[in-house]
Write a structure and sequence with these properties.
Shape: globular
Strand content: 15-25%
């Protein structure tokens, strides 16, 4: 210890926290940790690390960064003691880091953790990683059971990541209790919204949380009816029937969709408004005049659609890799219910929900505003499908739901008493009772009039039910009964089965892991068809499985769950049970605690808390239970044994065995004998196989016990505010690994070896372009990173001996190593490095010995059966008018089918073309569109409130040319990063800033002959553009132009001219010498050869290609000459004396395409066929393809191209091409990163251009920097880059579409246009009506500023036949639904399930219309299909681009991203289509006037 003088410094003076000279303190060296404190104040003590020797602040003086000194109350110029500390004494058990407005993947979390090992952290310390791309802050630290202000992160420290910007779904259950009053006289709705939500939003604001929130009100409506016949036709499409034969419908009202607000008070107002009419609208939704419909009743909370709602959000969360947003991380579903935490649920749906929640690592919180009951909750009661009077209800306590109870602080003056049980109303629920009077076969007595098995003396009965059968008992035979759902509960298999029967267990008896394992073999036989629910299965409990046989079954001796005292009940430990535990801090007693569960109990009792490892409790350390557990029993998880019997010992501490229970001792803290034994509850009977593998049944941590004190008024379970404000991400570590016996019995083992050096040597020989391969160590770490990214967790604290014994037989056990699984530095003693990872019941062991990586995979021998649950519901999204029918599938994913071998090779070969990313690998992607940057119409709409929105002009030729120029510049400078030798730049302007108008392009797919007029106009305009001074050709062409008769050789000679030539690209590894860009060569020919038109120029180049004078830059000779950003090079001719400067091309087209982005550039597509059959379908007028030369709208012209609607891709180009992408352009990452770009092969200036960035081995923040960089640069090219969703319309029949999003249907009112005609286009040939209608609709969307976007849909196998348009601001999409003619269908290659087309012309509903058609007919104001004539429906589907977050809005006029602008666009579009103020009629009439005028001209 030594005294120093303390001064402070600013961060700007020195970035290090502590400046100290090593010579002032003997024995001090770099990396040491010192504590600093004033002699008179022993605490707080500040810990800092000596980063480097920094003399120069004066003798015996240390300097501390100012903000730290302030936090720790250190006084400047006072004396302080500095003392070197021993790291283990100040090591942290867990650290919480918060981050905001960024996407942090799990791989980044792991790499950041390794980066932080053996560093010192203190409260609010800011941490930067990857060159500042990843930023986070220290929020809370725990050491030895207490929160501390500073400490050192070691290998064993658990790091919890919490995100202030998550995707949050708030579901408010509008069950009948919402209209009841609580004890303070408030409606439960008021308590939920004015109380809980208001408080939540306040906490968000205070904490700076900026979540992306969706708020949904949901409820279930039951109908009093005995059969389907009682319902009118219009109600039948969405009705569902429950297990008791009741008809019901589920309603969802989306109040807020994917919004981020600074101020949420308006939303509270909106929710109160919705509440006023909610029940009335939902219950009377189907009423029609003069029509009798069954009475509708709102369900209670317990009977509501609770699990369905969680699955809805999971369908969105599962797709996080498709629409990867870069400014948020984390997913949370919160259900706010007026109930008390008890729900009646379907067993299969529970299994699905549990598996999905746990596998996806999604937080799910349940907030009850009802009074807390006197028993343990949450409690799920399974639907009892058995009609027998004696059947016993079956319950489950899910550990994967994080429970909070919200109570207001109101006090009642006259009493402290809080009633906890709601008195039944005087009239019992008559309507519901009557409804089932006739079907009472299931229950002969009303439920409240008898008690189960009331033949017993109740107390004796209770004692018998809840006692555990003796360990060796034979099954106690009770009354034989037919039963289907087994008893409620514990089924405490304390019996050890006879030795002769192998008591085989599956490794994860958690719920969805059906077919309970520990059922005694006797039970097992009768249970063979059943699913174990989420239940205690284990030493004391077996899965309460539903027995589906109808023969009398002997009831075996099992104890039921007693929800009034679950405190000593334990379950078998499983990997699911431990999935979230590492986000909980260890309390003073050494058990993991949830801070919002107050604990009130005498210090001597053992905490043996129960089953909630909920994969969700992710969060729960809450402020409330900060100081609660004050005694310290340090038998933390170390005593929590492993799932199948063998101990789950942590941290290699010494181990003791007491009565068959394994106890470990950690560090210097003693374990009180009673505490240590008690943590395992009362399972200390005679030793039995899985005595040690237990966790407590209730509760998220599995270690904190439930006590009756939790239900007392002043000690209630509070609200887990931390989880709701800064939700934790799924931890990257867990601590469960099955024991040897379980691995042998329950798992299939397979392994494969990877030798990165050999693999790369093989591939390198075949590669045209050499890239530095990854080293074996880099590959090894990347294999771990990829598994973490896909939801695996690193298993820590498992001793090596366990793993080696369990080593799979096919490979020799590697030498034992003492390397803890996470060490980032190799340890000298052993050459082996090993990581264990798990997800669900799948375990991977990665071993590195020398240069060989061995991947050993353990997967369950009996996997769960796949589930696929179909669900229909009605939902009402913002801007919709009705509750539309929709449907969705809830499916569980077979994680064991993921092709890891392929993925590992993809990593090994650095993502080269040998292993392409395929859909099944669930790689991340981000889709973008390039759109025109500015449109004066948008500005006008924003500035003038009264302007209509249909004022977008058709783009002129000049506009389109500017876009083409901008796109070429973007491709060259930013996507391809092409360099050009300086000498060619010709002063400021380079030959590649093209003059406006130079890129007039023919519509190549129908290459006929371009009219001479076009060529003439191009040349005339080219030469007359005096305004453009950067046309270097015109400036520098002093020599006369080549004659039109010049030979090809002369032209090539001139092309090579250093000053006047075509301008070559800089030669690189993959580019040969004399390489040029095809479209620029065409421009060059037009400028340098007399009389060359665009078309002629293309012919000259094609001829050169055939004559072998030029060749594609890859060396490929098979392809035609493509005009666009395509690279060609000049070949040396035989006449050349000395081709020394010639560098050969790669000779490998695939490698070349993987290196460079090449895009064909075409002109706008015209819907018209020119009158002269010989001439090309070229748009040679100066305006858009929507009109012909005389300005007549295309839909009224005679020469419509009959294939215009269907030939999006009628040339030899693929729709998309792929190329390799260098992601980490600024070298910020600590690893090699790469990705891929999937881009459209063809660019047309009148359409949006799509590019999708894909990656697996890259950090989200670094990808984001690359894309935001492009977006900024695009503006210099007069383009804007906007993100778009993978599924722009979210139609219900697309795979994994968002169930709570859907397009808005905007009908087109054609009545006023018909006048006296029978059909809109009467007078034109009938076979063109469909095309004309389509062109008419296209003309309308064009007026509103929408442009075509040919987008590949991720939701269908191939292209989509419908025509999608995007607004020039990028904020909204419109779909024009088209009908494909029958002959088109016949030759089409598309499968029937694609929403190709939906007819707007007569269709009988039975005739199986396309899915869109069905969808649209539902949109029509909820009326019955019979009420309108199907043939008269036409319209548009409108949807919002929810991917444009604040970060993207700078690129537009500040307000276009704004809700007011978007809402105004939709409102105006609806008005126009509905012909308000005769706007549609006027447009129609103007078009006809133009047509008549043109005809008049023709007639003259």
């Amino acid at each position: 210890m030594k005294a120093f003088k303390l001064i402070v410094h600013q961060n700007s003076f020195s970035p290090v926290d502590l400046i100290i000279s090593l010579k002032d303190y003997s024995g001090l060296k770099e990396k040491d940790i010192v504590e600093i404190y004033h002699p008179e104040n022993d605490y707080p003590r500040l810990l800092l690390q000596v980063i480097k020797d920094a003399p120069g602040r004066g003798r015996d003086t240390i300097s501390v960064e100012q903000s730290i000194a302030t936090t720790f109350q250190l006084r400047t110029f006072a004396d302080v003691y500095v003392n070197i500390v021993n790291v283990p004494d100040v090591a942290l058990d867990s650290v919480e880091l918060t981050f905001k407005d960024q996407y942090m993947g799990r791989s980044e979390m792991w790499r950041l953790k390794n980066h932080l090992v053996s560093t010192c952290v203190y409260l609010n310390k800011k941490i930067e990683y990857c060159g500042g791309a990843i930023r986070c802050q220290v929020y809370e630290m725990w050491s030895q059971g207490d929160r501390v202000a500073c400490g050192v992160i070691t290998e064993d420290t658990k790091i919890v990541f919490r995100s202030s910007t998550s995707m949050v779904y708030l579901f408010i259950q509008m069950s009948s209790e919402m209209w009841d009053f609580d004890i303070h006289g408030d409606l439960y709705f008021e308590k939920a919204v004015n109380g809980f939500l208001a408080e939540l939003f306040t906490k968000w604001k205070k904490n700076g949380s900026n979540h992306e929130v969706t708020i949904v009100l949901f409820s279930r409506t039951f109908y009093k009816a005995k059969s389907l016949e009682e319902f009118p036709q219009h109600m039948k499409e969405c009705l569902q029937k429950d297990y008791r034969g009741r008809f019901y419908e589920d309603f969802y009202r989306v109040a807020v969709q994917n919004e981020r607000y600074e101020d949420w008070s308006n939303v509270l107002l909106q929710l109160r408004r919705l509440f006023t009419d909610y029940q009335k609208i939902v219950l009377q939704y189907h009423e029609r005049p003069n029509m009798e419909i069954p009475t509708a009743i709102n369900s209670t909370a317990a009977q509501g659609n609770f699990l369905e709602v969680l699955n809805m959000s999971l369908n969105v969360f599962e797709k996080h890799y498709l629409d990867r947003c870069f400014d948020r991380t984390g997913q949370l579903s919160v259900v706010i219910t007026p109930g008390v935490g008890v729900f009646e649920v379907d067993r299969e749906l529970t299994n699905v929900t549990k598996q999905r929640i746990i596998d996806n690592g999604v937080g799910s919180d349940l907030v009850c505003v009802g009074e807390q009951p006197l028993h343990a909750v949450p409690l799920l009661k399974f639907h009892n499908k058995d009609n027998n009077l004696n059947s016993i209800d079956d319950y489950s306590m899910p550990h994967w739901i994080n429970l909070s109870f919200y109570s207001t602080n109101k006090k009642v003056a006259y009493s402290n008493f809080i009633p906890r049980i709601k008195l039944p109303p005087r009239k019992s629920q008559e309507p519901l009772k009557k409804m089932y009077e006739d079907e009472r076969k299931s229950k002969l007595l009303k439920e409240d009039e008898y008690m189960h098995n009331s033949i017993f003396d109740y107390d004796a009965y209770d004692a018998q039910v809840f006692q555990l059968p003796p360990a060796h008992s034979t099954c106690v035979q009770r009354v034989a009964r037919t039963k289907k759902t087994s008893v409620a509960g514990l089924e405490g298999l304390r019996r050890s089965p006879p030795a002769s029967i192998a008591h085989r267990k599956m490794s994860d008896p958690d719920i969805h892991h059906s077919l309970g394992d520990i059922l005694s073999t006797g039970i097992k036989r009768c249970d063979s068809g059943c699913d174990t629910p989420d239940s205690p299965t284990g030493a004391r409990l077996s899965p309460r499985s539903s027995i589906s046989t109808h023969k009398p079954v002997i009831r075996t001796g099992r104890a039921l769950i007693n929800p009034f005292d679950p405190s000593h009940v334990t379950v078998k430990l499983t990997s699911n049970r431990r999935r979230w535990t590492h986000i909980f801090p260890k309390g003073p007693t050494g058990v993991l605690i949830q801070q919002h569960h107050y604990q009130a109990r005498p210090a001597g009792e053992h905490p043996s808390r129960t089953e909630n490892h909920r994969n969700n409790t992710r969060e729960s350390h809450r402020e409330s239970h900060r100081e609660s557990h004050r005694e310290r029993r340090e038998s933390h998880r170390e005593n929590l044994p492993k799932e199948n019997g063998s101990p789950m010992i942590n941290n290699n501490h010494p181990i003791y065995q007491v009565d068959g229970n394994i106890i470990s001792q950690s560090r210097k803290r003693m374990i009180s004998a009673s505490g240590a034994l008690n943590i395992l509850g009362t399972v200390l009977g005679p030793p039995s196989t899985n005595n040690a593998s237990l966790a407590l049944l209730w509760g998220a941590t599995g270690e904190q016990e439930w006590t009756p004190a939790l239900t007392t008024a002043n000690r209630a379970i509070g609200v887990d505010w931390k989880s709701l404000t800064i939700p934790a991400c799924l931890p990257i570590t867990t601590d469960y690994f099955p024991d040897k016996r379980s691995l042998q019995n329950d798992y299939l083992v397979s392994d494969y070896n990877l030798l990165p050096d050999d693999v790369n040597a093989d591939f390198a020989q075949n590669r045209a372009i050499y890239k530095e391969p990854l080293t074996t160590m880099e590959v090894f770490k990347e294999l771990v990173s990829q598994r973490l990214a896909q939801g695996f967790q690193l298993i820590v604290g498992v001793s090596d001996s366990d793993v080696i014994e369990a080593h799979c037989p096919s490979t020799p056990a590697p030498p034992p190593s003492k390397v803890a699984p996470q060490h980032s530095k190799p340890v000298n003693q052993a050459p082996t490095k090993r990581f264990l990872l798990s997800i669900g019941r799948i375990f991977h062991k990665l071993t590195l010995v020398g240069s060989t990586i061995t991947v050993t995979r353990y997967r369950p021998r009996h996997p769960y059966p796949p589930f696929n649950i179909h669900y229909r519901y009605r939902f009402h999204a913002p801007n919709h008018d009705t509750y539309e029918v929709s449907w969705v599938s809830f499916t569980t994913e077979k994680l064991e089918n993921y092709n890891w071998n392929y993925m590992d090779h993809y990593i090994c070969t650095r993502g080269d073309t040998d292993f392409a990313l395929v859909e099944a690998l669930k790689y991340w992607r981000f889709r973008t569109l390039l759109l025109p940057l500015h449109n004066p119409a948008t500005k006008q709409i924003l500035e003038d409130e009264s302007t209509h929105c249909d004022i977008y002009p058709t783009p002129t030729r000049q506009d389109l040319d500017q876009l083409t120029d901008g796109f070429l510049k973007m491709t060259e400078s930013y996507f391809n990063k092409v360099k050009r030798p300086n000498k060619q730049r010709g002063g400021v302007s380079s030959p590649f800033r093209e003059r406006v108008g130079s890129t007039r392009l023919p519509d190549r797919p129908r290459l006929r002959v371009e009219a001479m007029a076009a060529a003439k106009t191009v040349l005339e305009r080219t030469q007359s553009q005096t305004g453009e001074s950067d046309d270097t050709y015109d400036d520098s062409v002093v020599e006369p132009k080549l004659k039109s008769t010049a030979s090809l050789a002369d032209i090539v000679e001139r092309m090579r001219h250093p000053q006047l030539g075509v301008g070559f690209l800089q030669q690189t590894v993959s580019l040969p010498s004399h390489a040029f860009v095809s479209i620029y060569a065409i421009h060059w020919l037009q400028a340098n050869v007399e009389g060359v038109t665009y078309e002629k120029a293309a012919q000259i180049m094609e001829k050169m290609l055939q004559e072998k004078m030029i060749c594609h830059a890859s060396g490929d000779t098979t392809k035609r000459f493509v005009v666009g950003y395509y690279m060609y090079h000049i070949l040396p001719q035989k006449t050349d004396k000395d081709p020394t400067d010639y560098v050969r091309p790669l000779g490998d087209l695939q490698s070349f395409e993987n290196e460079w982005m090449e895009v064909e550039v075409l002109g706008p597509r015209s819907p018209l066929v020119p009158h002269e059959a010989s001439s090309g379908a070229l748009d040679i007028s100066g305006c858009s393809p929507q009109t012909d030369l005389t300005g007549v709208p295309a839909f009224l012209c005679d020469n419509i191209d009959p294939d215009y609607m269907h030939c999006d891709n009628d040339n030899d180009m693929p729709l998309y091409k792929n190329t390799h992408l260098d992601i980490d352009v600024n070298n910020k990452s600590d690893r090699i990163e790469w990705g891929h770009a999937r881009y459209q092969a063809t660019f047309r200036p009148d359409q949006a251009y799509e590019m999708c960035i894909q990656w697996a081995v890259a950090s989200g923040n670094i990808v984001a920097e690359l894309i935001f960089g492009w977006a900024r640069k695009a503006q210099n090219c007069r383009l804007q880059m906007v993100p778009i969703p993978a599924d722009p319309l979210a139609l219900p029949f697309t795979l994994k579409s968002d169930p709570l999003r859907g397009p808005i249907y905007v009908p087109l009112n054609e009545e006023p246009l018909l006048r006296n005609k029978n059909a809109l286009f009467e007078g034109f040939p009938e076979d063109t009506w469909l095309e004309r209608l389509f062109l008419f609709q296209e003309a309308i969307v064009g007026r509103f500023g929408f442009i075509k976007c040919t987008v590949e849909s991720t939701s269908h196998a191939a292209g989509v036949g419908d025509h999608l348009y995007v607004h020039v601001t990028g904020n909204m999409f419109i779909l024009i639904i088209t009908t494909v003619k029958s002959e088109q269908k016949a030759r089409g290659t598309r499968r029937a399930n694609k929403p190709l087309n939906a007819s707007r012309y007569p269709v009988h509903f039975e005739a199986a219309p396309s899915p869109h058609e069905a969808y649209i007919t539902r949109h029509v104001s909820g009326k019955n299909k019979d009420d309108y004539d199907n043939s008269r429906r036409m319209g548009f589907l409108w949807s919002w681009n929810h991917m444009i977050s604040k970060k993207w809005k700078w690129s537009q006029y500040p307000a276009t991203g704004d809700e007011a602008f978007q809402t105004r666009m939709l409102r105006d579009f609806k008005h126009f289509c509905a012909n308000q103020e005769q706007r549609l009629s006027q447009f129609w009439d103007q078009c006809w006037e133009l047509q008549e005028k043109a005809h008049g001209i023709d007639l003259e």
